[in-house]
């Protein structure tokens, strides 16, 4: 839950095994409560659409390519639902998640069954650092907080990080950003498209060899 946005649910996950049979009251860092509510592992047998409706257009292109191992960078961890989903549905793929809040990572591991690799850093800083380390990814998925989006410098780094025909997807929870962000995508990427899911605008673009030459 996001206490600054009443009624807004930031992350959901369906856990394997029986649900707790009693109610608990107390702090999330209490060891007894943590053990009782710990998610053994995420259960994606019913898919992802009912958990994160906007995630379907973001995960679709990646699941379609599950026949090959993929390297995926996810900016914004939340409960770790999307990274866990990808590693479950696409065996052999590697997902690196980035979040700037260490407590978010603790919650993801303790309560959402997240077991993947994570990097604690600001997304803008992380893109810069990974670009200098000569890393490369088949896909970069951006799903960060309200009013946060990729900027021009980020797109420069994305171009260097994406493998040929790699894909960038960005979830915008602020609809007013969409028009300007689509134009920014088109400055750096090819095959740019936009899909609307509720209040979310999902942008997609692919690395283009011709644009790489220009940069």
TrEMBL record:
Residues 72-166 form the Methyltransferase domain. Pfam families: Methyltransf_25. This is Methyltransferase domain-containing protein. The lineage of its organism: Eukaryota, Sar, Alveolata, Dinophyceae, Suessiales.
């Amino acid at each position: 839950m996001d206490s600054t946005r009443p009624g807004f649910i930031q992350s959901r996950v369906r856990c394997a095994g029986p649900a707790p049979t009693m109610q608990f009251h107390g702090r999330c860092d209490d060891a007894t409560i943590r053990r009782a509510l710990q998610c053994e592992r995420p259960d994606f047998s019913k898919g992802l659409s009912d958990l994160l409706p906007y995630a379907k257009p973001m995960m679709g292109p990646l699941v379609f390519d599950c026949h090959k191992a993929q390297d995926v960078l996810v900016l914004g961890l939340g409960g770790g639902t999307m990274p866990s989903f990808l590693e479950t549905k696409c065996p052999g793929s590697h997902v690196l998640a980035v979040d700037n809040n260490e407590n978010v990572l603790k919650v993801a591991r303790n309560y959402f069954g997240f077991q993947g690799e994570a990097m604690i850093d600001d997304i803008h800083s992380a893109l810069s650092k990974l670009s200098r380390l000569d890393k490369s990814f088949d896909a970069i998925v951006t799903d960060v907080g309200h009013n946060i989006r990729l900027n021009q410098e980020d797109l420069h780094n994305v171009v260097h990080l994406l493998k040929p025909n790699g894909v960038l997807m960005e979830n915008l929870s602020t609809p007013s950003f969409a028009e300007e962000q689509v134009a920014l995508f088109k400055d750096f990427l090819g095959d740019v498209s936009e899909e609307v899911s509720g209040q979310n605008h999902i942008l997609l673009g692919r690395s283009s060899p011709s644009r790489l030459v220009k940069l």
